[in-house]
Design brief:
About 95% of the residues lie in helices and about 0% in strands. It is mainly α.
């Protein structure tokens, strides 16, 4: 039972990390686009 809870916790943590990475990626891409449009 304890192992299962740890397992689920790890999965939740992994999802959170993936989500954060995705958000960071999107923000950097949009930031690059905004800087490009500004320089134009």
């Amino acid at each position: 039972m304890l192992f299962m809870s740890c397992f689920f916790y790890d999965i939740k943590l992994l999802y959170i990390m993936m989500f954060m990475l995705d958000v960071v990626k999107h923000t950097t891409v949009s930031f690059k686009q905004s800087t490009n449009s500004l320089s134009d």
